[in-house]
Design a protein that fits this description.
single chain, six-stranded mixed β-sheet, Dna Topoisomerase Vi A Subunit, Chain: A, domain 2, disordered N terminus, 5 domains, 31 strands, alpha/beta
């Protein structure tokens, strides 16, 4: 909307965006957005906080309140600033109207090594923050997009590191400035405060002596440990100093104001006090309840304003992290109090073994943008297991999908196929353990326990050695896999001791598993994204998984939880139906890609990367099919008869008195070219849908192929690369034949390639 356009009247907004009435808050918000689509209580629009070419902003209305969620990661504060609105404008009757209007009270410049401004952090009163960057025209844009992130006061930090001085890491810019101006110490922080430390920040502190000074709250203590962990092995030494005498949520600025000195701080660094218990969170709701009321347990809960996801703190404390949708704030919450006073607490495991089997995040960490997160996942996979480039990319997409799977209607599975010693278990460890609340089990597990873990944790089932010898158990696992790809398909069982009572056993969730053989069930096989494992020749892959592997995975899981927080509320499975890959993409690939389309909706750069990946993959699938025995038969068929091009008469076809057209070609003709028997070739042609007919052509009696334009056209698309085929990139995947083709053995699959869909 340009400055000369008037906002639409309430009646116009109501007419255009669904419903006879529309509340003033939603009217005000929609009138300031462009590209608005939708209706009733849910809309999409172009986000005004970044250069949005596709509707990546979700707008919804609940109880008169307006909820905003940008799928590109823009903060609500920045979106409001771009619309010249305030938080009160999202509430009916200006629910925040009595609050003081926010004003800028400080700006903090983040500059590069040469002192050039990259972006600013802006501090507001009442307390609030947002970021902005130069627009290149002398103005400022209220978002960061892909702007390079750096440490605060970077030039001073670099100079101090080179001089061997101590660098003090605090949570906020005000604290860093106070340490510099009042105590003469070098200090820095990351933009966004606690939980927003990026791995790239650590490199600026390589070889440095670092002292971390956290705020006195649970979030501050957790942030200090995260930064310390990120700097271990990078900085020369790292200490965390907890300042004594701080009030709850107090910081180093409070300590200085209370008389803290340079000498006092140096003494604390020399003789660090023991870490105190962080003060109890004030955010825990306190409502009267009956002492005998039993709370409900869950691992995830969502409402219109908050998301609650279970995490494991300190290796033993199960709690919720509460994500506020409106402003992106994350806090701990030991329980959830509903409007009716009922309580919800985190899921408690039945024993220690169950807790060890479920991999929960230990926090929620900033990940930059989605492309950066995908890159980090792919680098982690490549560091620890040898898989094809295509599968590495597909696996990273799949990991992200698992964190939003409960917003989808259907899911594919991820499968490693191979013999012992080919890296099957390593792939499952490396990829499966990154997935959402992965439950790691082995092939000896009973189907009943799989049902139980799905019901209790609602995460990803990671199953190694899924080839069970016991036929009953194997068939039950196949049932779980067959039903579990789609929401609303539970397994129904009658209770043994009460046949009139039914059990509804859950099956829907992501699944990562390994097998030595392909499934005989063609439908199940079609739902698997499969990597055919091979013994690696790489010498850089660790033989054993050490502490660095588990530390990397823990950090990635925390980033992935933040990805879930930011994207869960705005993800809509219906967006998958609008995901257009083009009519030239095979149905199987379109089906596999539908869920990914919903995950990446609104993320234009990631979506385009994914589309390009699918198109390149299709070319590889065609090339790999052509290299199989079936492909050789099809290629020989096309080379022997010009009639396969769909022409008439002298093109090599013969029309019978009944009007049927025959190709002047027999199975034995193809067999001679391929070195196979006529019987084998005939069976392949039959499986491909081609028929034969006994007849006489030019005086020669034989069993000729019947010309079928539809079947031949399909075979040409699937096995022959044309000049206008999708462009090629040097990937190395493969696809076995479809379910109606002869099933190749594992050795043949290895010859074909590695990735199967």
């Amino acid at each position: 909307m340009t400055g000369n356009e008037k906002p639409p009247r309430a009646a116009e907004v109501s007419q255009n965006f669904g419903g006879p009435t529309i509340s003033p808050p939603i009217e005000k918000v929609l009138s300031r957005l462009e590209g608005v689509k939708g209706g009733n209580s849910s809309w999409t629009a172009r986000c005004p906080s970044h250069d949005d070419k596709r509707n990546s902003l979700s707008v919804s209305e609940a109880d008169g309140k307006v909820l905003l969620n940008c799928h590109a990661g823009c903060e609500t504060e920045n979106i409001l600033v771009a619309m010249d609105l305030e938080l009160k404008d999202l509430f009916p009757d200006g629910g925040q109207a009595k609050k003081q209007k926010k004003e800028i009270i400080a700006t903090y410049d983040y500059v590069d090594e040469s002192g050039h401004l990259l972006y600013q952090a802006v501090r507001l009163n009442p307390k609030g923050f947002y970021q902005r960057r130069p627009d290149g025209k002398g103005g400022l844009i209220n978002n960061l997009n892909d702007t390079r992130r750096v440490l605060y006061r970077l030039p001073e930090v670099i100079e101090a590191v080179a001089a061997g001085q101590t660098i003090h890491v605090v949570e906020g810019e005000k604290d860093a400035d106070n340490l510099d101006k009042k105590l003469g110490l070098v200090a820095t922080c990351n933009c966004g405060g606690a939980g927003k430390w990026l791995d790239s920040y650590s490199q600026a502190l390589a070889g440095a002596h670092v002292v971390i000074i956290p705020d006195n709250d649970t979030t501050g203590h957790k942030h200090a440990q995260d930064v310390k962990q990120a700097l271990e092995g990078v900085a020369a030494d790292v200490k965390v100093i907890h300042l004594p005498g701080l009030p709850a949520k107090g910081d180093v600025s409070d300590w200085i104001a209370a008389g803290g000195t340079v000498e006092g701080l140096r003494e604390l660094v020399k003789n660090p006090p023991p870490e105190p218990e962080p003060p109890a969170s004030k955010s825990r709701p306190k409502r009267p309840r009956k002492d005998d009321e039993k709370p409900r347990q869950t691992s995830f809960h969502a409402d219109d304003s908050f998301l609650y996801d279970e995490v494991l703190l300190g290796g033993h404390h199960l709690t919720f992290l509460r994500y506020e949708i409106a402003n992106g704030q994350v806090e701990e919450a030991d329980e959830i109090i509903l409007e009716d006073g009922k309580r919800i607490i985190p899921r408690l495991p039945s024993d220690e073994n169950e807790l060890l089997a479920v991999l929960l995040p230990t926090g929620a960490a900033d990940y930059g943008d989605t492309k950066s997160l995908l890159t980090a996942i792919q680098e982690h996979i490549n560091r620890y297991v040898d898989v094809s480039p295509n599968f590495r990319k597909f696996a990273s997409y799949y990991v992200l999908l698992t964190y939003l799977y409960d917003k989808m209607n259907t899911l594919p599975y991820l499968r490693a196929l191979g013999d012992t010693g080919c890296g099957k278990s390593r792939l499952i460890d490396t990829v499966g353990r990154l997935c959402y609340k992965s439950t790691v089990v082995s092939g000896s597990v009973t189907p009943a326990s799989i049902y139980r873990m799905i019901r209790r944790w609602g995460g990803t089932v990671v199953l190694d050695e899924a080839d069970m010898k016991n036929s009953d158990e194997y068939n039950e696992v196949i049932t779980i896999l067959n039903c579990g790809f789609e929401r609303g398909r539970p397994v129904i069982r009658a209770m043994k001791d009460n046949p009139d009572k039914l059990q509804f056993l859950p099956t829907y969730c992501p699944k990562v598993f390994g097998t030595r053989r392909r499934f005989k069930d063609a439908a199940l096989e079609a739902r698997c994204l499969t990597e055919i494992m091979q013994e690696t020749d790489r010498t850089d892959i660790p033989v054993f998984l050490g502490k660095s592997f588990y530390r990397e995975q823990a950090n990635l899981r925390n980033k992935l939880l933040m990805f879930r927080f930011r994207n869960w509320h705005g993800t809509d499975a219906e967006q998958a139906g609008a995901f257009d890959l083009g009519s030239d993409i095979e149905p199987r690939l379109r089906q596999v890609s539908s869920a990914f389309g919903a995950v990446f909706a609104g993320m234009d750069d990631v979506l385009e990367d994914y589309k390009a990946f699918i198109r390149e993959l299709q070319r590889e699938l065609i090339e790999q099919r052509a290299s199989t025995l079936v492909g050789q038969v099809v290629e020989t068929l096309f080379s022997l008869s010009p009639g396969t091009n769909g022409t008439n008469g002298a093109d090599g076809t013969f029309q019978t008195p009944t009007g049927e057209r025959l190709l002047h070609i027999q199975s034995k003709d193809i067999a001679e070219k391929t070195g196979k028997t006529s019987q084998a070739v005939g069976q392949i042609l039959k499986n491909l849908g081609l028929k034969t007919k006994q007849d006489r052509i030019d005086g020669q009696k034989g069993r000729w192929l019947v010309y079928d334009d539809a079947v031949l056209s399909k075979l040409r698309r699937r096995y022959v690369l044309s000049d206008d085929s999708v462009p090629s990139v040097p990937f190395v995947p493969s696809v076995p034949g479809d379910s109606d083709e002869p099933e190749p053995e594992l050795s043949e699959l290895r010859e074909q390639g590695r990735l199967a869909i």
